[in-house]
């Protein structure tokens, strides 16, 4: 039984690698992609917006989907969606084709994210939640790294083909592991994902604060994931591949930070890790605002600090739902938090891109600094209030 449980946990981690692989590759490749497709810097915002809308749709409907399908089936279908989308993206010649294929990317990400986060929050410890999200970090670090490698040959299409192929292989591996998963009883699925009115959920103490935190945090993470490469390409005149490595650096720090969070969670509370991480983001943003360093390696270090700060916030906020909400609320809470979080990705981050395009991307560090301070203040308020376990 222990061996079976270990293999199953590895399979779930593998699924989160698949979730992370596509997330930052368009941002990492955008400097060359927009040249190939003959569109402006701000056109990336349209891709992000459409991906967001589809992710939001999938996220809000995930509890309904999980009442019908077991987690393992939702997982494999989601990965197949994203893998096929990336393979087709590698062949596009027009921007509208890229927009069309952004839809299955968003649908796949939204469905798998809710289902696996709910599964882990319900069945595993805080350390496992951190480790799960560190494997997301493995994927989201590996994706831009592959793109950076293929960009050295002035090719983003090959990178998309490689990543799409990896996703299809992972989907097949998960499909072959179906016998390892415990069958989820239909009655339990109905209870775990029972319909709860949105108005009732929003009245639960702490619910509104928590979704605002997810909104702002996801905005910070996607600001780094999508725009960090363009910022250094434009402001520091680094190469295409050098700019993509800044994206890789951020997600490498995110990955290592979440592994470290998993280890620290045995000795430190989830509350401490959330506060520490959000404070570290502010420090990194302030260093980026200074912008007085001549050595490019220092900037890689600053981006690493920001990624390290981001690492514990999301998984530990997700785990704290166990403490602040009832099991019957858990699926709906996670769905709402992630749906609002996608607004940070799909509306706030594209809006920031339009501002950068309209004025100058030089304001990018100030934007991150302001949002990180605001996030820290909301987290303080959220964690200090005595939240009930009943709605």
In short:
With 391 residues, the protein is mainly alpha-helical. 81% of the residues lie in helices and 0% in strands.
Descriptive keywords:
mainly alpha, 0% strand, Growth Hormone, Chain: A, 391 residues
Q: What would you note in describing this structure?
A:
The chain is an all-alpha fold. The chain has a single domain (2-176, 186-384), classed as Growth Hormone, Chain: A (Up-down Bundle). The chain has 17 helices and no strands. It has helices at residues 2-20, 25-37, 44-68, 71-89, 95-123, 126-151, 157-176, 186-192, 198-203, 207-235, 240-264, 270-290, 296-310, 313-319, 321-324, 327-358, 364-384. It starts with a helix and ends in a 7-residue tail after the last helix. The mean pLDDT is 84.
What is the end-to-end distance?
A: 37 Å
CATH class: Mainly Alpha
- Number-wise, the strands total 0
Shape: globular
Helix content estimate: over 70%
Note the total helix count. Answer: 17
- Main sheet summary: none
Identify the CATH homologous superfamily.
Answer: MFS general substrate transporter like domains
- How many whole angstroms does the radius of gyration measure? 20 Å
Number of domains: 1
Structural class: mainly alpha
- CATH fold-type name: Growth Hormone, Chain: A
SSE ordering? HHHHHHHHHHHHHHHHH
Mean pLDDT: 84
Strand content: under 5%
Spans where pLDDT lies below 50 across 5 or more residues: none
CATH architecture: Up-down Bundle
Oligomer: single chain
């Amino acid at each position: 039984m222990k061996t079976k449980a270990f293999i199953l946990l590895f399979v779930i981690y593998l699924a989160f690698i698949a979730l992370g692989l596509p997330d930052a590759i368009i941002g990492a490749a955008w400097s060359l992609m927009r040249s190939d497709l003959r569109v402006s810097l701000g056109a990336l915002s349209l891709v992000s917006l459409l991906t967001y809308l589809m992710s939001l749709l999938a996220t809000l409907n995930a509890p309904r989907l999980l009442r019908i399908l077991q987690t393992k089936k939702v997982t494999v279908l989601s990965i197949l969606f994203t893998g096929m989308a990336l393979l087709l993206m590698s062949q596009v010649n027009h921007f509208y084709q890229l927009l069309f294929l952004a839809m299955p990317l968003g649908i796949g990400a939204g469905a798998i994210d809710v289902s696996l986060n709910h599964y882990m929050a319900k069945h595993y410890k805080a350390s496992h939640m951190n480790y799960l999200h560190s494997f997301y970090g493995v994927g989201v670090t590996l994706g831009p790294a592959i793109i950076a490698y293929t960009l050295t040959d002035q090719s983003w299409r090959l990178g998309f083909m490689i990543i799409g192929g990896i996703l299809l292989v992972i989907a097949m591996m998960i499909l072959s592991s179906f016998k390892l998963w415990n069958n989820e009883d239909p009655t339990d699925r109905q209870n775990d994902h029972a319909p709860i009115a949105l108005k009732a959920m929003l009245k639960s103490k702490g619910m509104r604060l928590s979704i605002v935190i997810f909104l702002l945090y996801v905005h910070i993470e996607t600001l780094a994931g999508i725009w960090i490469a363009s910022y250094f390409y434009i402001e520091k005149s680094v190469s295409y591949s050098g700019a993509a490595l800044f994206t890789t650096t951020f997600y490498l720090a995110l990955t290592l930070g979440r592994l470290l969070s998993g280890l620290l969670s045995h000795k430190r509370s989830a509350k401490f890790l959330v506060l520490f991480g959000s404070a570290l983001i502010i420090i990194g943003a302030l260093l980026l605002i200074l912008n007085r360093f001549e050595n490019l390696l220092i900037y890689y270090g600053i981006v690493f600090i920001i990624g390290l700060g981001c690492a514990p916030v999301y998984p530990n906020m997700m785990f704290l739902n166990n403490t602040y909400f009832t099991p019957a609320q858990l699926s709906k809470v996670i769905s709402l938090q992630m749906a609002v979080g996608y607004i940070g990705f799909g509306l706030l981050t594209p809006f920031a891109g339009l501002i950068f395009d309209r004025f100058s991307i030089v304001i990018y560090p100030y934007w991150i600094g302001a949002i990180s301070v605001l996030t820290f203040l909301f987290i303080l308020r959220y964690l200090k209030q005595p939240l009930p376990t009943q709605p």
